[in-house]
Amino acid sequence: MAVQLTQTTDLAAEMRALGERAREAAKLLAQASSAAKNAGLTEAAASLRAHGALILAENARDVAEATARGISAAFLDRLTLDARRVEAMAAGLDQIALLPDPIGKVEASWVRPNGLSISRVRVPLGVIGIIFESRPNVTADAAGLCLKSGNAAILRGGSDGARSSRAILAALQEGLGRAGLPPHAVQLVPTQDREAVGLLLRMDDCIDVIVPRGGKALIKRVAAESRIPVLKHLDGICHVYIDRAADLETARVVTRNSKMRRTGVCGAAETLLVDRAVMGTHLRPVLADLIAAGCEVRGDAEVLAVESRAVPATEADWSTEYLAPILSVRVVDGVDGAIEHIGRYGSHHTEAIITEDTFTAERFMARIDSAILLWNASTQFADGGEFGMGAEIGISTGKLHARGPVGVNELTSYKYLVRGTGQVRP
């Protein structure tokens, strides 16, 4: 399995060829049977497993270069692959193969008084461009979701994980070829030149949707420059609120996991809110757990009075996505205080409430306008795989077309089929 980067002296021409190949592949995928797509997914998974050693070797080269540049621990965690993560990519493709095929699904049908029979049927979006940073596993996740939903994918990964992404792509394309599907159903932009992103965002005649997955600077650039509809989120400023009716052990376990399981993912908690009514019983043990796990606590005056190891929080902390073992902590006046804080500082991503009071939990979940709300569960469940989607391309915090984890169903649209017997409109 060769792992090569295409070289070209005419970037615009190469990008145009990339788009045209994707458009042709999308036409074939739109007509592919469920069995054919599932075979492609399982063969791609088998190819990932077969070439795992090569993928890890290429990833090691990426990680070594990134480490030499002194990148952050959170960034390094997102970049690094190991045998378990390669297997998780392959298992994700196998899981996607088991999902129901959304294409061709009749969502609704009805007959009009004039005899016209109307049905609404799921169809692919077409060609999806995915721009991502530092997470080489996105190459496999995005490819699998696009394939299952009948879409072709053009991927542009970050320069830090370029070797890893190319190795993963080669394995995927090998598997697709064995299954008789077009290898060009999944392609990588052949250069790390930043101009390639600009060209990609202007290819509205070839690409139907852009999905950026990365830092705020990338997503702002995509939103500003794209001629193509964008599914995006800017920040994952996720909150955990410990209510006065929270079970202490549940609060300790869920808060620690929400923050410290993986600090560099978008579902990691960045702010903890604690009901003033349980300051004396819940705040100290929860903070002690976090600090023992290596988390820096930045608190308001009431937090500092309880925990001497905390440092003062600034106004900027309440709207910061750390993606690191740092947590801002504030004491609030009950659930309404938590709702007010999240409404002011939140990013509409993921919030969790810890409480044994059903009424309070339902109030929290109804009043907060975020894509994902959890009750007595870690914010780290904000993930398409954990939702049973097999994988996700990202979390959308917008309200048009898709919201929350973007999985197979969210990568489809629909069309109306109208069947008549010669009717004409008077």
Topology diagram in text:
Elements: H1 11-31, H2 34-50, H3 52-68, H4 73-79, H5 83-98, E1 106-111, E2 117-124, E3 127-132, H6 137-148, E4 152-156, H7 162-178, E5 186-188, H8 194-201, E6 209-213, H9 216-225, E7 238-242, H10 248-260, E8 269-275, H11 279-292, E9 296-299, H12 301-306, E10 311-312, E11 326-332, H13 334-345, E12 350-354, H14 358-367, E13 372-375, E14 395-396, E15 404-405, E16 412-419
Parallel strand pairs: 3-4, 3-6, 4-5, 7-8, 7-12, 8-11, 9-10, 9-11, 12-13
Antiparallel strand pairs: 1-2, 2-16, 14-15
Protein model, in words:
- The protein is of the alpha/beta class and 426 residues long.
- It folds into 2 domains: 16-232, Aldehyde Dehydrogenase, Chain A, domain 1 (3-Layer(aba) Sandwich); 238-381, Aldehyde Dehydrogenase, Chain A, domain 2, CATH 3.40.309.10.
- The chain is 42% helix and 19% strand.
- The chain contains 14 helices and 16 strands.
- The protein has helices at residues 11-31, 34-50, 52-68, 73-79, 83-98, 137-148, 162-178, 194-201, 216-225, 248-260, 279-292, 301-306, 334-345, 358-367; strands at residues 106-111, 117-124, 127-132, 152-156, 186-188, 209-213, 238-242, 269-275, 296-299, 311-312, 326-332, 350-354, 372-375, 395-396, 404-405, 412-419.
- A 7-stranded parallel beta sheet has the order 10-9-11-8-7-12-13, sandwiched between helices.
- Strand 1 and strand 2 form a beta hairpin.
- Helix 2 crosses helix 7 (162-178), helix 6 runs parallel beside helix 7 (162-178) and helix 13 packs parallel to helix 14 (358-367).
- The longest helix has 21 residues, at 11-31.
- The radius of gyration is 23 Å and the shape is globular.
